[in-house]
């Protein structure tokens, strides 16, 4: 079960990263026309921008981003059926991070909770990732990653691309997105089903050699639906939040796996810091 839950989690995260963006035509609020021969008493409200217009502005804003902070909570309910017997597992992953995009560096705190039957496992990790070194804290002990492992962490961060890359990828789903005015921000909301979900997921994974195996797994998955909401600030055009819910399943080697995934994330502290330094006590104590 562990093997399949990990694969599904990775695929779900890949799709959700791709889906932090997504109308058939954005819906403008209706306005009442004045009676013939009279003048309108008030100015008609401005039309709601289309998803493509908002994402273009957000992409332009993201091109100016040097650093940002993010928080994400991913919850998964995994059911695996083998020979008619069902096993259930619940995973919850909470991550807070600060990222400097150039030169790339990040500070992350990761909390993982896994519940399977009567077993309940929790793990806390802290990471400093820079081009020079990677430091990982697990079980209250700091370790410096070997060179080979360091490069894997650095590549993982780089593979996600910049915020501008993410927003540019979102634009491929603009035709399936509805825009609503929420006061200080716009909500961009989409519900994708069936082949359209898989098609978008494969677009986001294509071209990334490190995700070739994931892309192959995606071809075997039956993705039922994906509901996506993401928020763009009116004043700055910055991406401020995203929410994704997806259900999917697959059959392989006699196992039927079903996954329901919820992800909520927020983005903040744009350009409020220009570097991430590894504390001296971390470097000194690392083994």
Helix and strand topology:
Elements: H1 2-18, H2 51-62, E1 67-82, E2 85-101, E3 104-116, E4 119-130, E5 134-138, E6 141-144, H3 147-159, H4 163-170, E7 178-181, E8 185-193, H5 195-205, H6 212-220, E9 222-233, E10 239-252, E11 255-268, H7 280-285
Antiparallel strand pairs: 1-2, 1-11, 2-3, 3-4, 4-5, 5-6, 7-8, 8-9, 9-10, 10-11
Q: Treating each run of at least 4 consecutive H or I residues as one helix, how many helices?
A: 7
The CATH architecture can be named as Clam
Number of strands: 11
How does the major sheet shape up? 11 strands, antiparallel
Number of domains: 1
- Which strand order does the major sheet show? 6-5-4-3-2-1-11-10-9-8-7
CA-based shape: flat
Low-confidence stretches: 1-34, 206-210
> If you compute it from the alpha carbons, what radius of gyration comes out, rounded to the nearest whole angstrom?
22 Å
Q: Could you spell the SSE succession in H and E letters?
A: HHEEEEEEHHEEHHEEEH
Tell me, what is the CATH class? Mainly Beta
Instruction: Give average pLDDT, whole number.
Output: 78
Strand residue content: 35-45%
The assigned structural class equals alpha+beta
- N-to-C terminal Cα separation, in Å? 33 Å
Explain this structure to me?
The protein is an alpha+beta fold and about 290 residues long. It has one domain: outer membrane lipoprotein receptor (LolB), chain A. The chain is built from 7 helices and 11 strands. It has an 11-stranded antiparallel sheet. A hairpin with a 2-residue loop joins strand 3 and strand 4. The longest helix has 17 residues, at about 1-20. It is flat. It starts with a helix and ends with a helix. The model is unreliable at about 1-35 and about 205-210 (pLDDT under 50).
